[in-house]
From TrEMBL:
Keywords: Repeat. This is Pentatricopeptide repeat-containing protein. Pfam families: PPR (PF01535). It comes from the Eukaryota. The gene is PCMP-E48_1. GO terms for biological process: RNA modification. One of its GO terms (molecular function) is RNA binding.
Length: 90
């Protein structure tokens, strides 16, 4: 039996195993459902984890694949703001 990343992620959550950045990026890159993607994104936020650049990239990719440009725009704005705060505005 072969499980895909989103199913493994759901099992981890049920078993109360804390996902890491690699888990989030793997799961997000395998999601094509906006509802499921938002659930994973909400879990990331509610867990208080700060996503690394790879997870942010996967979030943007997931939202764009699902046709949700509103969320994608918010993520891009967040990334640009963070870069500007660290002197990398260009």
């Amino acid at each position: 039996m072969s499980l895909q990343a989103p199913e493994l992620f759901a099992k981890m959550v049920k078993l109360q195993v804390q996902p890491d950045q690699f888990t989030f990026s793997s799961c997000l890159s395998d999601i094509a459902s906006l509802k499921r993607g938002k659930q994973v994104h909400a879990f990331l936020v509610n867990a208080g984890l700060r996503p690394n650049a790879i997870v942010m990239s996967c979030l943007i990719d997931m939202y764009s694949k699902c046709g949700s440009c509103k969320e994608e725009q918010v993520l891009w704005n967040t990334m640009l703001s963070a870069l500007a705060q660290h002197g990398m505005g260009n």
